[in-house]
Amino acid sequence: MADETSQDRRNTKGRQRNRGQAGRQRKYSAAAPAQRKRSSDPARLTAFQILQAVTHEDAYANLILPTRIRRNKLDRQDAAFATELTYGTLRSIGTYDAILAQCVDRPLKKLDKPVLDALRIGAHQLLNMRVPPHAALDTTVALVRDQIGAGPSGLVNAVLRKVSDRSLDEWLDHLAPGESDTDLSIRYAHPTWILRAIKQSLATNGRPPEDFHAVLAANNIAPELNLIALPGIGDLQPVLDYGAQPSDLAPDAAVFVGGDAGRIPGVAEGTVRVQDIGSQLTARALANARDIEADESWLDMSAGPGGKAALLASLAQTKGASLLANDVSEHRTKLVAQALRVVDEDVWTMSVADGLELAKDPANVQRFDRILLDAPCTGLGALRRRPESRWRRTPQDLATLTQLQAQLLDAAMTMLKPGGLLAYVTCSPHIAETTLQVSDLLKRNADAKLLDSATALQGAALQHEGASALDRATITGADTESNTAQLWPDLHKTDAMFFALLTH
């Protein structure tokens, strides 16, 4: 009888008809075939393209996303959606991969990379965005069908349906219920070596152990867009009129939520720049630490991509100082030149050189009154803004970078005038890149002296009734006499910038 029924259900081309087979009621899709999406929408396509570039080409999302948003002609709402989908997915790859591994019948490494990236995008929509489940499923499957092919779309649909069976909290309680490094790594999407580095830094800076979770959580919060109107050049008012809010921490600064930064007044012209407020404060602290004398000579040793250089140059312009902006990379130097184009050309010059080689030139020995060394580092302080770096960096990178940092510090001291000011800055809280680097320099160089860096950083912040908006206790921890300063994403809503002011 079964064979007869089967024969009855074949069409004239011999294909089996399965509707209601074996007495089962047919299960209909949520959408009729004519209504199912068969092409990807621009916002999700943009996010997928960025993830592909990050996965396949080691690209940095913050550098290519604005260009892709404009190329795909996203409006303000879609640009905001694409930005959150991109950064949110990249930020939580470790968490989503742990969840997807429970829902896929093979090791994730055996999936094609485009399929895995599409699954991550779908998981983020299902678990961490206010996207209805049916919409997250339909649009992700449509994206796969459009960009990868019809074959993988069935797999993606089946896997994401399993993902949607639990909320994010339910998945985390299932996969990471404890306080072990492995559990916290899944819960907060941080590799274990980074977890340990943050915990050690908190202890070194005198912060209580219970703050550990707060810092990890802060690294996973989408940061506000930070802006600065270059002093004497930019105008903050049109930025505020556009919908930004004035910063309560830094002068000439604003914060903005959502949208394409390129549409903000002054950004395309370069008079207003996108720059983390922590970065703004460290550059201002060097410039404001003491009165600027006319004809001072300043150096930005690692100036690329140009944010701090533009701020320093605009401040130098107001006081008659000059800035040499140097970087080892010719490509990054071109970005610096683009950033500096709005500053009077008489104020700044450019060079492309290794900072170590720069110090070997006799003409540069004890030449500069102020030097900014924003040293190459692991970038563990900017995990909110550069989420892919947490999955790229390794402990092996740290060994190479700390050696380079020490060499650059020695080179900077060689080029600093007696009594000049050197700002050592890293976008990292790792003690090997921060306090240990400073203490090692002081041991190597008997003439070097650490100044009151915390007070200098406080002086760079907004002043309210004679008091700094930056509380000293929050940047020095329990030891308020500490002479270095560390910003934190959970306390200050900035990158975790480290600042030390030195002289000799």
Automatic annotation (TrEMBL):
State whether keyword Secreted applies.
no
Annotated spans, Disordered: 1-42
Catalytic site residues?
427
What molecular function terms (GO) are annotated for this protein?
A: RNA binding; RNA methyltransferase activity
**GO biological-process terms attached to the record:** regulation of DNA-templated transcription; RNA methylation
Q: Which Gene3D superfamilies match?
A: NusB-like, Vaccinia Virus protein VP39
Key words, A-Z: Methyltransferase, RNA-binding, S-adenosyl-L-methionine, Transferase
User: What does the similarity note say?
Assistant: Belongs to the class I-like SAM-binding methyltransferase superfamily. RsmB/NOP family.
Report what the protein is called: Methyltransferase
